[in-house]
Amino acid sequence: MTQAPQSGTHVHELRQVLLWPLRLMPGSGADQTSRRPWEVLQALGETSPWRTVIDEFDGDSAKFHERHYNEFVTFLPYVQRFLYGEARTGRGEAGEASMRVFRRHDVAQVRVTSRPGDEPLVLQVIHADLYFFYDVDVVMLNVEVGAGNLPLAQAQEVLYRFGRGYPAGWDEDGQALHCMHKVEWLDARGNPLSVSDAQNRDLFLAHVCQKRAPRIASHWKFLLEPLVYDPVAEPGALRYRQIEYYRMPVMAFLSVEDPQALTRDDFIRLGHVMGNGNGASPYTARQLDDFEQQVCYDRFWSPAGAAPHTRYLCSGLSLVVVGDAKSEYFCCRDRGVLAQFRHQHFLLFLIAHLQKSSLLMFSDRLAEALNCLNVMDANSVRRFKRRIRASFEGFLRFTHRYWFKDISEQALVRALFGMCSTQLGLERLHAEVKVRVEDMNGYLEADSLRRQANTVVRLTVVTIFGLIGTVTTGFLGMNLLAEADASMERRLVIFAVTFIVTTVLTAYTMIKSKRLSDFLDVLSDERLPFWTKMKALVGVWRTEKD
């Protein structure tokens, strides 16, 4: 890191955007609430560091800039309504946007150390946000950091190591693998707010052994507070659970001294966010034959245009743009590529990962409902039915509110969203979850019809056998017992005895209704002999043997 950067490998400006989808879990005991998650967070007041973000579409034109206008018109109308809601009209209230954003302002910087012995690097925290969504139990942590004047190798290490929820493992010396050696969140004065604990291997091992769930690193746990990690025993009305890989989806903006000086291996490492690798080739040549076709968007990779030699790299889990630091348009935060990266491109990346995380959340719900099902327990069956129907209703709302195949007609945004969707396998995942949800709902419908059919059979059997007694006792209005003039006490006794006998016979007929139904089927079959029908009648009272 102390070595002077060579030409073409110097990063004038680095922006890294992390987007971590997490599943919101219901609270337990006193933490249970029917309020929406953002309402719970708002109700915490000063005890929470998160504050509602008042967006630029609140009617204050002084805060509304051209970059916000460009962002808005990029998307198709139905995506605009999802992202921004609808304006207040004279006929009623304004339509609300489908997401709520909260931001914390106490974290101003983050000091990171990539490897033991490396000099720490201080990154500016541009913002740290939480995104909540209507009808979807998903929350997204969004952190944007920036730095300037870095060697390319150091920028690659930051991109590779910073966005890790916990260490992947440890080497023989006990050093955490693939993540930062040390991370410190700092306030505006440079005072530490939280320090990572990735090197404390025993804590992570014990947590996985006891909880059967990974342990979130302390600095990410601090940043998410007052949200509580669900596997731990700490109380909290807002609880979350990991839903995707521990490596957070990442976006990156790099303005370099000379983009053409970057080698193919450099672009491969940036596109797949693989670290610097000390000059070694990341994959074999055969595995990388289709890198340019699968990952690169090279429409602007030419000497012409306002931002010459600009290259987009999209692998689904990452979206990286590399361009010339000497291009004013590329580095412009109001109208240029940097503005597009922080607004339009961020939103398309967010939509793609919202779709993926929501589908995974629905899949988890179905699996949990099946795991909790006990067919011998009526209450468990009822809870299972409620959970499946709720998942079916939630999936319908998700499909109609958030499932977009196209979000823009602008060629760049349309292409990047298509690349994200393809790389993440969203079409396949949506089809798979849709089939599972429909299968579950179809099972419930079939089970409901089966129960209704069984009820009809039982009622039919009771009606048939009850008809015999009804016709017999009511023939020509005949009364077997002339007790109309008897005393009230005698008539009440006769009524009670008759009621009890009739009730017992009806209940017994219901108990035997399945076998009596089988007997009626045999009795109605003209092809069967008389003795077979008598055997079927005797079989009504025969004890079944295993």
From TrEMBL:
Alphabetically ordered keywords of this record: Membrane, Transmembrane, Transmembrane helix
Superkingdom, taxonomy of origin: Bacteria
TM annotation in the entry: 459-480, 492-511
Record protein name field: CorA-like Mg2+ transporter protein
Organism: Pseudoduganella rivuli
Taxonomic placement: Bacteria, Pseudomonadati, Pseudomonadota, Betaproteobacteria, Burkholderiales
